Amino acid sequence: MKTIFLLAFFLFTATAVLAEEMDSVSEDEKLFALHVKPLLEEKCLACHGQDPDRIEGGLDLRSRDGVLAGGDSFDTDVVLTGDGQHSILYLSTTRQIEDYEMPPKQADQLSEQQQWFIRDWIDAGAPWPSDDRVKQIQQAYAEGEQVLVSRALSDAWQNRRYAPEQLWAYRPIEKQDVPDGHHPVDWFINKKLAEHDVTPAPPADAATLVRRLRFGLTGLPPTPAEVKRFVADYQADSDAAVASYAARWMASPHYGEHFAMHWLDVVRYADTAGFANDYSRPNAWRYRDYVVRSFNEDKPYNQFVRQQIAGDEIDETNAENLIATGFLRMGPWEQTGMSVFKETRGQWLDDVTDTVGQTFLAHSMSCCKCHDHKFDPVPTRDYYRMMAVFSTTQFAEREAAFLDQENQQGFAADSQWVDAKIAAYETQRKQLSAKIQRRKRQESGNAKVGDNGLDPGDEASLARISKNISRHGIERDRSEPMALSVYTGATISRKNISGRIDLPDDRWKKGEIEQDVIHSGGDVYATGDVVTPGALSAAESLGQMNAVEFPSGKGDRRRALADWIVDPTNPLTARVIVNRVWSWHFGKGIAANPNNFGGTGGFPSHPELLDHLAAWFMDNGGSIKKLNHLIVTSAAYRRDSRHPDPDQLQEKDPLNQLYATFQPRRLTAEELRDAMLSVSGELERTVGGIPCRPDINLEVAFQPRQIMGGAASVYEPDPMPQQRNRRTLYAERIRGLRDPFMETFNQPGPDKSCELRETSTVAPQALTLLNSQEVFDRAIAFANRLITAELVNDEATLRRAFELAVAREPNDRELALCLAHWQSARDEESSKTYERPIFADRITRTVMAEKTGEPYRFEEILPAYKTYVPDLGPADVDANTRGLAHVLLVILNTNEFSYLD
């Protein structure tokens, strides 16, 4: 750090001296040095000078002589000194010459002002000061701020300047005092509202607020009893009621489940590896449950970060630490016998470097993999310094004893299904092997496929069966005390990684310690400068960070990075997590892009509030629970979503950047499913454990899916309702097979980090809620719950339905309409009869042979359906219950059920 401060001092002194020496600089020289030369370097030299042996069109833009000489298509017309308006160089930037639009990519097109810089420079005679003089001019007169970073790929980038406001995230956190008696969130929010003369909306009513709080803290709806108690408490003392209710539900195990869902979006959790090689990661569920536990236990954020990045290097005798490093294994992995390990390994290093950057530092590191960052002070060297941290990180499934807190239920049932699946395939393999052997013994030179009873695709089917036996064998590890983890050691080249990788006896003896270099152009085979492990140099210089020493060789590199990230002087870490938590409550961050604090991300709407919360968070031990409590007890969180003067809001704050109202939101896909199961009485609330397999659309469940080069087994749900109807968080996340209901309601895919959920409004959502089997099953169960409760009469039954579904009683008109609809539906259902569904325990499938591309048919055994117990259906209830189900289906389709506020 002393070196950085000395460099900053010398830079300041040199700038002052230069300013005195550059009084004789002309405006034309300034125009070239400050605008034209940087434009040529950024937009043109890649084709016209960066590689002297490959000058496009013969036009060399590295020097004045080269520019004046012109190119193959245009010679001296390229620059007509004194006549910019008719010079080809200017005209090409304005796209007035067909087939000579420059730069060729539309996205790189120059702005009108940049075009004028070119024109005015040519009008001035195209002056071209020496490189030294250009540097002096830029040093003395360039606008913006220079940033001290590790060495860039070019001097021009090294000396570039940034708008000061663009560097907000790198500067030290400054906490402003809040006057006594004021809620810190509201102090800053209300001050900004007053500055813009915007009146905030009044508080939401108690029934609205209790639903907002319950979903916001647990992802589940409140019960009627909770609503009544909260409304009474709120009338007596609103502040105390909110504080007490929030504390109560943050003590619930469902709190950790809800916030784990948010975190797993960011780290893109999945139970399989992805793409064409979508094999199982049988122990990934333990990382998911680690996240749930961490939020429930209110684990200090510093510890949460350090365990996930470097738990094994901190203490590898601690099972929790090993489980936590599953974070580093969450990305897709495409290593097969057909791929090159070095390339696949390079893809993982890219992925983990970028993911750590986005998750903890709000920096997409991949932007500077091939070149110094176009917008932020992050040179390519920083990218490869951070990648070097992970170059000694290797995969392993490590022994980690089950913790007392871990749910070990369901192991026997899961193992029984896996063993039954393997046994069915083993029987088929024996039968098919015998058939093939008979064919080979009988085969003659002219025999055709199909002779002697051998069907086309038999050999392909044998390969398919063997691969599925291997795949299901991997799943046996789900109930083993193993952690999807990593270790620090030499890199061992592997042909395939599709199962358990054991920890080597000597981590450094076999394999190689990879050379840490800059890979030119991002090519793993192109080696450039050697680098040493490190992190973001701009955060160190601008943020005035404490020095953290990064070891190389066999040192604990990830531990050093984790310590660097959680260092109290790191300007990014606390800002990033408080912004994330804020976005989980308000649907947007104080800084608009939780994964991107750079120049292309949205600047903070309330920078003082963000800094105050970041400092407050560190002062309070990195407690997420305390931060959540602070946010939900604020007036900003408790406001109504409707403003008394919408015209004022539309005029002064149309995007609700000032938080004058609370922003309504639709329930997430998980919340929607869980809420339906909750109100129907079917939700199994057990926390943690191996993944469950809910019912999904059968057409999707039975569709072909590739795994390890062959057709994977079809999707089979768990046999029992209590297994299937768990919280959606626990549903098996298969990268190659998305649940269509979840996908329709914007559950993000697990391949990329999701900073914020999208909310689309499309026709398939309405069609799904009205017509899908899953939703109607919920309506049947909901109706049965109400009927068996034996309420006083139909009116009381419907009142209870509204209380359960939308936390209020129906008004007179709603009640009358529902009663009429119930009677009509009951009459219609009285004339109908239903058969209980029959589920086959085998299915005939058609897939394409891997080698020939020809289709072939085979039978697959489905052991889950041998003992499958369906959810309650129309055949299980009477016409009165079915009639009520039709009414409840309408309630489940209301915006009031699907939206908060």
What report would you give on this structure?
The protein is mostly helical. The protein is about 45% helix and about 5% strand. A hairpin with a 6-residue loop joins strand 10 and strand 11 (about 855-860). It is globular and about 95 Å long.
Q: Would you count the extended β strands for me?
A: 12
Please tell me how large the radius of gyration is.
32 Å
Based on helices, strands and strand pairing, what is the structural class?
Answer: mainly alpha
Q: What is the CA–CA distance across the termini?
A: 51 Å
- Mean pLDDT comes to 92
Strand ordering within the main sheet: 1-2
Short description:
The protein is mainly α and 901 residues long.
